[in-house]
Amino acid sequence: METVLLIRYAEIHLKGLNRPFFERLLVDRIKRALEPVKADVEREQGRVFVYGVPNDAIDGCTERLCRVFGIHSISPARCVEKDWEQIKAAAIEETRAFAETADTPTFKCFARRADKRFPLTSEQICRELGHELLEAYPNLSVDVHHPKLPVTVEIRQSNAFVYTTEIMGAGGMPVGSNGKAMLLISGGIDSPVAGYMIAKRGVQIDAVHFYSYPYTSERARDKVVELAKLVSRYAGTIHLYLVPFTDIQMTIYDKCPSTETTVLMRRLMMKIAERIAKETGSQALITGESIGQVASQTIESLCVTDDAVTMPVFRPLIGFDKEEIIEKAQKIGTFETSILPYEDCCTVFVPKHPVTKPKVDKLRESEALVDFEPLIEAAIAATERMVLS
Ligand code: ATP
Ligand code: MG
């Protein structure tokens, strides 16, 4: 009796005419996630089935699939022919461990008959199977309201499937179904979460990081590479652009008003990120900002930052509290790396009294004190690209 992974889609069913496109993309993402295992991925009537996974690889594959956007949930299922005797035997096997170990082992049968040629109706399947299970395990009882074990049978065109667990997937839409955007990634807690959230909506992401040797260390840079890798476990391949920012940063400190250095730095980061984004096919920028979290994230500061670019800036964490962001970071597995103590270029030379209500006109003036264009070009020319997957 083979164990098959039965996969339910997330929002794809909403997509009308585009549905085949979304489904193909999802299958493609699933295949990539399972590449190390030799498995057959097949699509059938609103489900994807993964066949041929060795039993000892089921848990590992399920874990990988939980990082594929577009999956609503996964059930490891016993796959048998559409034959009543086989279905019964599968249900009895599937229920055995529960019947033998649970304190008050209650269950309820569910059936979905997609293949209407199957001789028993859904209702009959549930009733018959209920009897069989009670007979096989006299300590079981039926609880129709709060069963501890739901026993589900799905009769599909290809086969019948029997399962008792449903593991929640990551939800969202398959990466690649909604364009491409450029994440500004720092070594902090927020930006990796922001990247995750946009990728979850089906957006392919690249990332750009600004570093300031020797004021920021090599280890700080390695940490960002590691964070981008962690995000790529969900988002798929990420091109990470590492931009040397020291000259620009030093020039800002030398030539511009000290209260405005942070906001000016943010503007220049955005400008460079936008250029790289345009050159590499991204349609929007992503940051990890949330309103009021720090001086450079007041509404006024965000307006001044936005003013530096024409591309839309996505800030998926805009309304999140720090605590909520931390919770998410823990859940997706980036938190532990984010809190490693290495410095970020934004945290070196922080002005003592940063402006909290910068004005766009004033900031444009301060920026015009220096001809940044050659510095921007030099930084882009010296940018290093890494491919992470
Ligand atoms: P994070 O936790 O993501 O570092 P933060 O709360 O520390 O965010 P800031 O340091 O003000 O906030 O940065 C705001 C946003 O600017 C970050 O979320 C990130 O998108 C971007 N950013 C900051 N520093 C860098 C950097 N060195 N390289 C690329 N992007 C950066
Ligand atoms: Mg930061």
Succession of helices and strands: EHEEHEHEHEEEEEHEHEHHEHEHHHHE
- Show unreliable segments: none
**What is the radius of gyration computed over CA atoms, rounded to a whole number of angstroms?**
27 Å
First and last CA, distance: 35 Å
Question: Could you please describe the fold and organization of this structure?
Answer:
There is one protein chain. This protein has 389 residues and is of the alpha/beta class. It is 40% helix and 21% strand. The chain is built from 13 helices and 15 strands. Helix 3 packs across helix 4 and helix 7 (246-255) packs antiparallel against helix 8 (261-279). The longest helix has 19 residues, at 261-279. The radius of gyration is 27 Å and the shape is elongated. The mean pLDDT is 93. The structure holds adenosine-5'-triphosphate and magnesium ion.
Brief summary:
Helix content is 40%, strand content 21%. The chain has 389 residues and is of the alpha/beta class. The strands form two sheets. Strands 1, 2, 3, 4, 5, 6, 7, 8 and 9 form a nine-stranded mixed beta sheet that branches. Strands 14-13-10-11-12-15 form a six-stranded mixed beta sheet, sandwiched between helices.
What are its keywords?
389 residues; alpha/beta; nine-stranded mixed beta sheet; six-stranded mixed beta sheet; 21% strand; binds adenosine-5'-triphosphate; binds magnesium ion
